[in-house]
Amino acid sequence: MSREPNAQLIALMEEAQVSNKGLAKRMRDAAEQRGMDLGTTHVAVQRWREGAGIKPDTAAVMADVLSAKLNRRVTPGDLGFFRQLAPPTQQATDYPSTAADALSTLDALAGERLKAPHAGQLIVADAELSSTVLSWMISRPEGVQADRPASQRVGMRDVHAIRAAADTFMQLDFKFGGGHGHKALRYYFRYEVLPLLNAGYSERVGIALFGAASEISQLLAWSAYDSGNHRLAHRYLTSTLRLAQVTNDRMFGARILSNLSHQANYLGNHTQAINLARAAVEGAKGRATPRAMSMYSAMEARALSNTGDHQGAGRAMNEAERYFEHAESGSDPEWLSYFDSAELMGEFCHCFRDLKQRRESVQYAQRAVDDTDPKYVRTLGFCRMVLAQSQLLNGELEAAVATASLAVEGGESLQSSRFQRYVTDFQTEVSTYSSNPAVADFNERVRDALARLDDE
After folding, report:
1. pTM, whole model, 2 decimals?
2. CA distance 273 to 288
3. pLDDT digits over 250-303, tens only?
């Protein structure tokens, strides 16, 4: 699963008589003195010893720390990170070439704060995405390193605990938005989950453990996306896709591709969104349950609808519906339990809205609103906003504003950049009616809601 051990780094650490934890602490302290927020842990040091990559600025800090400890000059080139310290050609969004690189990247990402949304657009080259998809499609899984000597032994109860935590954080995400629990989740992932991957376990436990870790990592990506930090979300997603490759979990890998499609579509990169969704569909055939296949096809429909492709979107929606008719015939993983008929109707109403099919958009949006479990606060807010936009398409201004007002009222506690965009998009659409008392009242409600959210 890892590269050849970094013999140079291991030798230097032994000479300096410094442990993984000791080196990590010295690096954090040295970085803090330079005004850097490095966040290095003993887990990262162990991965570097095992051959994972390192950033040049991090290597420079390590070299200075070891220089002080050994009382002689150690250069970054002495540390054994030859590939990484060459002129950088790898972009921050690249697909990790090894599992060790994926784990090292995820450890670094979990050390990053969820900053405010970037002003600049996330730009991912078509060639880069094609390379990511191709790498996943033709991959040969490494498998887990079972029964290796380790001071800690992991069992299924540890896996169950991680999955329970994932479920708890997912419910918080639905109820309060991605900005609410991200900090706690990344701390849990970095200090409670990632270290277990380097422990000892049986093959059965190892496969389940990597799956559970992937679920947490995917949720971190989703919460970053929902908060508007698209670059961070994309890096989490590509690294999580590589993590799923270890155990050849094609259904979960396809889920990550569909998430990448969802993000690309949201950002207006519709051609990329179509290709990613199709890769999910094709890559998971024969390896995913009907419910999962329905979700992947729905993502393709969403992307095609945004390009105005009525025929293609209709085909993809029909395909999603046919898969969903057989949803109960498969044994679905717990992470897929949220994708019910209301969720499918929610995907379809977005499609009909974007295709400007007025009658169908109202019909499906109303069904989605009526059927969505209230515990899915954000989903219900999205569906209500799409219903409002659909009513506006039909010339029902007062009904549209009333529906949007309900959405704002119900979503007041959401720390969700996406939900706020739904609201501001609707405000733009009704701006020509700003003199209408109902519209003016709605705009005032939005201002009050945002002010209260800032206060909280």
Report:
1. 0.81
2. 20
3. 999 999 999 999 999 999 999 999 999 999 999 999 999 999 999 999 999 999
